[in-house]
Design a protein that fits this description.
Blueprint: H1 6-9, E1 24-28, E2 31-34, E3 50-54, H2 63-67, H3 70-98, H4 118-136, H5 141-145, E4 149-152, E5 160-161, H6 162-167, E6 175-180, H7 184-188, H8 194-198, E7 203-206, H9 211-217, E8 220-221, E9 224-228, H10 244-262, H11 264-274, E10 280-283, E11 292-296, H12 303-311, H13 317-323, E12 327-331, H14 336-347, H15 352-368, H16 376-391, H17 401-429
Helix pairs in contact: 4-9
Length: about 425
Amino acid sequence: PWDLYDSVQRAKPKGGPGATAAGLKLYVRRVFISDDADELLPRYLSFLRGVVDSDSLPLNVNREMLQHHASLRTIKKKLVRKALDAIKKMADDEAACSGDSSSGDDDKEKPTGDACKAFGTFYKEFGRALKLGVLEDDNNRGRLAKLLRFHTSKSPKELTSLTGYVGRMKDGQKSIYWIAGMSQQEVAHSPFAEKLVAEGYEVMYLTDVLDEYVMQQLTEFEDFKFVNIAKEDVDMSPEAEGEDKAAAAKAKKEAAKALKETFKPLTGWWKEQLGSKVAGVKLSTRLSSTPCVVVASKWGQSANMERILKASAFGDQSKAAMMRGQRTLELNPDHPLIVGLKDKVMSDKDDAAAKDTAALLYETALLESGFESDDPKGFTQRMYELIKGKLGVTAELPGSSKQEEPAAAAAAEEDAAEDAAADDTDKQEL
């Protein structure tokens, strides 16, 4: 129905303009009782239409008493189970048609024709209802999770299930990686996913508004934890096996410590330049071709969640700012720009070019990571100065700090002259 999700935001009118057909009609021993039996189905299954006929409900009670009857809870539980079984059958038929069935029953005749496309058509129309069910139905969350479908780095055109993702995981992979954004193109080209994809890991692309809320409820699937790769402390290294595990962990720790000491002058200096804008500056293991990124704290809001909350018409911006959490600037130690900036800082910490480069890199990383710029005017002015140097323009740009300095000095001299004249006048009067 075109207005299926309207009821999530506001209650539907019971009659008159805007009213829609009832979902289920309730009968008791073939006697019509009600055509508005909302209590028989949870909100996320409100798209179902049908008739419920019961022999266990009394006829000689009013509607208010009937709503609290114990049999209604049993009926609701059975209806939900039947509905999810029917949806699962469509999903199994689709998997059998594509050859991805995990049931192990090879003798069963494979479905053909419309049965192979039924679940795809259903999910296109009602996939968001299933996601709403993950948020609201704690008892059936595991069953609903198996029905969810997402695009991934290995399946950019066709939707895939979580079961399919787990079946394609690399040996030693400990987590299910995902990233959320406004579009598939945005998340596919995100710097957070570049190294994971290059090393053969599969990353889930979450582009629906509900997806990140769903992931807050789905902490794990088949003993694999979900990991948002846009947040800090993402462990992307496969787990070693046997006797090599301890040796590999020790070697990795020593190498990371040595690299950290090498870049300590740069990270400490950069943190001083940024001040309270970031919680810290550290080296990254998730980057390959990007010089730096800005990541959200582990328990804070991601850039995508910040955009969603800001777009909320009745959202409390003060609470959103409080829940935003701290950000961390992560540097790619192998990138030439970061290595060059480190050498420049080590030779002269007060170099103006190094400060401008650090500010420009941070603001670029902020935008590429999905956040809004803290100082759009300063960012654009630095970009204009960069373009000016590339074009070989020698004239000062309007509004630049260099052009404003003489004007500020002249204004200061004028103020000083006026103060001196006022002092002379006061002395003469005395």
